[in-house]
């Protein structure tokens, strides 16, 4: 009985040790893609590691939370480069979201109307 | 009152935005450009459908809503417009931040998708529109914008709204074709995007065209090798990487990728030689871990019992 218990414990410890030793910290297999090289040429000063795909799951989750149909998210992510996914992960709430040119209401509308009339901005259709 | 006066004076002294250069192209309008009147917040899908359709893609704005529209942001983001173009096998080529890049595309028959900030720097109102024409004589541009098929905008108003949007504009080009004033780096950036998106036939066409136009373009040769690899054509991949390394023996990434190919073709010892040389040649620290991992994988393979 005692032997069996120790043997099972030893086997368990060994298994954990082997799994821990064999799992790479950065899971990488395959070649370095061209987009990564292009990006590295553009950002001379940035010494961040060019890791692959760590932001994908994060962006995926947030897209769904922001109302994208879960069935559509995969295709959208698959079309973007690692650098674009990183940009999305960092800025998807802040970067410009081109939408409706007339997305204004109430007092803001009045202010903008005044600014439009003096030619400072141009959100209303006119020549 | 003072604001009014100041602004009016400012307008009066600004020179025209569209400089008259070439009498033959004083006035262009791509009247055949499709028009997709946008529904609320959907200027992204509408503008993208416009340029894609103009480049021969059979697509409507409705079909693009699920691809680019982000409901909580009530709009669409630039990387997603570019990503969606790739799924239709089009190069989304980012223009130089110059009005003449836009007029050159129009003169070449291609409409331009632009981001505009129609509000203020601090109170931005982001909008996508498609430039379909210009008139140097009147200093106006013609846009497909929102529900307006022909929106006439003065050069100043256009430039101001475009300036506040970082002067971002793209054209969608068939792979193998070139924009009006192709810049090698921007073209390869677009081609690399097709590769990342898994559009391998399109990427290969773009890379082949790049090599034909710019024979020394190492990144294009790397791209050719990479696309062969993705298509499991390992011998062709090896040839492409070797071709690049003849031109640029210090190209550590190409040598890394060659090592990977040799490993997969069953020659781990040759692979080890290449990765060792690659690591020795590496000057960009950001690739250190990637090359280190390749070497580790090769060594694991050599150590494994046969």
Helix content of chain B: 40-55%
Strand residues, percent of chain B:
15-25%
Distance between the termini of chain B: 87 Å
Q: Regarding quaternary structure, how should these chains be classified?
A: heterodimer
Q: Total helix count of chain B?
A: 13
Residue stretches of chain B low in confidence (pLDDT < 50, at least 5 long) are none
How does this model look, in words?
- The complex is a heterodimer of chains A (127) and B (306).
- Chain A is mostly helical and 127 residues long.
- Chain A has one domain (2-117).
- Chain A has 6 helices and 1 strand; from the N terminus they run αααααβα.
- Chain A has helices at 2-22, 34-42, 56-65, 70-78, 82-91, 106-117, and one strand at 97-99.
- In chain A, helix 3 packs antiparallel against helix 4.
- The longest helix of chain A is centred in the N-terminal third of the chain and has 21 residues, at 2-22.
- The N and C termini of chain A lie far apart (92 Å).
- Chain B has 306 residues and is α+β, with helices and mostly antiparallel strands.
- Chain B has 2 domains: 20-173, Cysteine proteinases (Cathepsin B, Chain A, Alpha-Beta Complex); 184-303, Serine Threonine Protein Phosphatase 5, Tetratricopeptide repeat, CATH 1.25.40.10.
- In chain B, 51% of the residues lie in helices and 15% in strands.
- Chain B is built from 13 helices and 9 strands.
- Chain B has helices spanning 2-13, 43-54, 61-68, 78-87, 99-107, 155-163, 184-196, 200-213, 218-230, 234-247, 252-264, 268-281, 288-303; strands at 27-29, 69-70, 75-77, 91-94, 112-117, 126-135, 140-145, 148-154, 169-173.
- In chain B, strands 1, 4, 5, 6, 7, 8 and 9 form a 7-stranded antiparallel beta sheet that branches.
- In chain B, helix 2 crosses helix 3 (61-68), helix 11 (252-264) runs antiparallel to helix 12 and helix 11 (252-264) runs parallel beside helix 13 (288-303).
- The longest helix of chain B is centred in the last third of the chain and has 16 residues, at 288-303.
- The N and C termini of chain B lie far apart (87 Å).
- Chains A and B meet through helix 2, helix 4, helix 5, strand 1 and helix 6 of A and helix 1, helix 2, helix 3, strand 3 and helix 4 of B.
């Amino acid at each position: 009985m005692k032997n069996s218990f120790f043997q099972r414990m030893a086997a368990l410890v060994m298994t954990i040790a082997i799994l821990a030793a064999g799992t790479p910290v950065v899971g990488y297999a395959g070649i370095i893609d061209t987009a990564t090289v292009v990006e590295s040429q553009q950002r001379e000063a940035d010494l961040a590691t060019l890791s692959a795909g760590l932001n994908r799951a994060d962006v995926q989750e947030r897209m769904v939370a922001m109302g994208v149909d879960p069935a559509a998210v995969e295709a959208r992510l698959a079309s973007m480069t690692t650098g674009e996914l990183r940009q999305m992960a960092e800025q998807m709430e802040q970067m410009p979201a081109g939408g409706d040119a007339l997305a204004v209401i109430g007092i803001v509308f009045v202010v903008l109307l005044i600014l439009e009339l003096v030619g400072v901005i141009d959100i209303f259709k006119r020549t | 009152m003072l604001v009014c006066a100041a602004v009016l004076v400012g307008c009066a002294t600004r020179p025209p935005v569209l400089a008259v250069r070439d009498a033959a192209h004083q006035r262009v309008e791509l009247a055949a450009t499709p028009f997709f009147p946008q529904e609320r917040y959907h200027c992204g899908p509408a503008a993208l459908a416009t340029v894609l359709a103009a480049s021969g893609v059979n697509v409507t704005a409705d079909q693009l809503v699920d691809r680019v529209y982000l409901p909580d942001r009530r709009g669409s983001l630039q990387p997603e417009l570019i990503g969606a173009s790739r799924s239709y096998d089009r190069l989304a080529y980012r223009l130089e931040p110059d009005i003449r890049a836009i007029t050159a595309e129009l003169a070449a028959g291609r409409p331009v998708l632009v981001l505009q900030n129609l509000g203020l720097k601090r109170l931005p109102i982001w909008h996508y529109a498609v430039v379909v024409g210009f008139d140097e004589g009147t200093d106006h541009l013609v846009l497909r914008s929102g529900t307006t098929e022909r929106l006439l905008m003065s050069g100043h108003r256009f430039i101001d709204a475009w300036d506040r949007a970082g002067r971002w504009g793209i054209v969608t080009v068939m792979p193998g074709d070139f924009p009006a004033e192709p810049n090698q780096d921007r073209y390869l950036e677009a081609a690399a995007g097709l590769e990342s998106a898994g559009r391998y036939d399109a990427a290969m066409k773009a890379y082949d065209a790049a090599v034909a136009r710019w024979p020394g373009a190492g990144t294009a040769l790397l791209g050719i090798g990479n696309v062969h690899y993705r298509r499991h054509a390992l011998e062709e991949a090896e040839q492409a990487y070797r071709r690049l390394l003849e031109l640029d023996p210090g190209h550590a990434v190409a040598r890394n990728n060659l090592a990977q190919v040799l490993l997969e073709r069953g020659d781990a010892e040759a692979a080890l030689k290449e990765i060792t040389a690659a690591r020795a040649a590496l000057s960009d620290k950001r690739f250190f871990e990637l090359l280190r991992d390749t070497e580790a994988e090769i060594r694991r393979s050599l150590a494994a019992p046969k």
